[in-house]
What we know:
mainly alpha; four-stranded mixed sheet; elongated; 33 helices
Amino acid sequence: MPLSEQFxxxxxxxxxxxxxxxxxxxxxxxxxxxxxxxxxSIGLFALTxxxxxxxxxxxxxxxxxxxxxxxxxxxxxxAAEDFTYQSSIxxxxxxxxxxxxxxxxxxxxxxYFNTFSKxxxxxxADMDMFAEVEHDLxxxxxxxxxxxxxxxxxxxxxxxxxxADLTTILEFSNAETRRDLxxxxxxxxxxxxxxxIYDKEDANFDxxxxxxxxxxxxxxxxxxxxxSTDDALTMLRVALNAENVPPQVSSAxxxxxxxxxxxxxxxxxxxxxxxxxxxxxxxxxxxxxIEKGASIIEPNTRVTPEQYEQHLAYIRHLDGKEVxxxxxxxxxxxxxxxxxxxxxxxxxxxxxxxxxxxxxxLGLLALVVVCNLALVRLCFELGDLDQFLYDSSLSAxxxxxxxxxxxxxxxxxxxxxxxxxxxxxVVSLFSAVMFGNRLELMVMTFLASCVAIFICRxxxxxxxxxxxxxxxxxxxxxxxxxxxxxxxxxSEIIFYQVVSASITGFVQGIVIVGVLPLLETLFKRTxxxxxxxxSDYNHPILRRMQHEAxxxxxxxxxxxxxxxxxxxxxxxxxxLARVSCMFHxxxxxxxxxxxxxxxxxxxxxxxxxxxxxxxLVIKSHVKEGVDLGLTYKLPRPIIDVIRQHxxxxxxxxxxxxxxxxxxxxxDEDAHVLESTYRYDGPKPQFRESAxxxxxxxIEAASRSLPKATPQNxxxxxxxIFKSNIDDGQLDECAITMSELALIKESxxxxxxxxxxxxxxxxxxxxPEHSSSKKTTNERKTERVxxxxx
Length: 789
């Protein structure tokens, strides 16, 4: 080589421009370690435990911990110094005690006795009339007459006289005897009514035997002996038995008069109020003194109104003073958090193993949960502000302005409903613990999160996130309204809580809409919202396909229709399947002319290449597609589909071509390796990817059908399904034979309806086919068969 050329080569070696490397997928050992290392997982667990303990339990001051009456306290509050306060509750209790010490004053009511006496006299008149006509009546008529008298008497005031007793009275006594007995009974009743009759079953009149009560008569209050209903009935029976009549007659009259014994004891409220007012004039306020070290609130007990008042007095006494933070029994709290997160780990292990195997997903869960609890703690700390410190009605809204739906909804959108529900349980539990182990708070926040997750289960619009957040707020508001009404919380406080919960839910929805894109990018998560945005035909790479490879673009749209319908049939992610299909062949943009659907001029570059080179070009569109996907920052699921949509299938056309060439040239030492003509894979790893592999093959092969009849389409679909199953292309994804049957049925239905023929319009001529066009179609047929198999 001449010296000048050697010098030029040396210069080119050292000073030539370096070609810009295209972005390719590379695996970093550090990233793999961070993603898969169990040590990192354990570290995440420990950090999450520590963060939750610090966020939820440590550093809470007495003035910052707001209780409400009837809450169950989770901590003990002890007085740090002596203080006194005027207790309105104890003063009221003393007032009530004085009021209860005022003896009741009663009066007797004779109205019922007068009514009963009148009805008995009317009954006596009816019996006298019956006695006059008894001899003219038959036995049955007499019995009917007696029954009529009985019913007429009972209807006057729901009396219980029986016809048998009335018959006994009429048969064994004459008119004079009956009159004497009735007069004796009424006299006995009148005396009992004048004394006063009370019901021993009535808790308002708890008197003993031979009791004395205060009665008002005129302007004087005097003591008097009283009788119970049993005493009055006993006196009545004694009076009737003294009349020297048969026992059955005496018993019948006793049963007649028993309906006349009614309590006639009435409280004289006017006189009682006068006596109470005199007692209250001597009442003085109660002053309570609390010594240092005395317990104000006990853990795991319901806060009484007296404790609530004492705690508020203590908070106001400590306002502006330095007080040590509370002892939260740190070891117990750590064990509680560890137990909860361990249970969550087992749940993830059973229901979502992919999350447990990915430190990225675990990190997302931990970050969102801890940040959410930090916001809850921030709302809790608002209790230190003067506006909340001295206004119990305002401090009562603090649990309802906490964003407890924030992290569950974010996790549900990014990772699925299962992890979202788990997050909702964790956040609800620790929020309830933070606010005093309030069970109702945990239940209502968990319910609200479940409602929001249900609304966003198949989210496709960002506006639906706001709707879900607002629905969660309304759920809390409704629960609060019903629960606090039952607990007799003041209506003003309930109104504030309901409004606060509704507004907080709406704001949470807006915040989630803003945070989602950041988390999607940071943790490489893909939501349906992102997929819908990628389905825009104006995406740069899709625009390139439409201009540079229109045949591939049309093929992608047809595959998208097939895959979307099939995924709907097996309840897969149809949106992911459709969008992935739109991008699955973007690698053909590098050499579009090497693919039959783009060879519109009749020229086929493969005619000038060897079979192995052609196979290499065909295979390379998968790798080129992955590289383009990374360049355009496509989501991970779409890149996975690009890599898997051919599996490890054999490129049969060029493989058979190579085998045929080897047979025609036996002298050449050319051994055809099947691996040279197989895609590099991997095989489909999830259901949507498997559906796309089958849809891609079937759509391409359907172009080779000479006539698209239902029978031909079914045979084609069966052949391609059998070929892929026999070749093991579906072995690595969780797809069942029943789902494959549904997919096959969907493919056949879609193809029959998309490949139908149309009738020729009148006057139209059959187009003439040139030889070059015919050659192109023939080549297309060969190529699509190769791609399909």
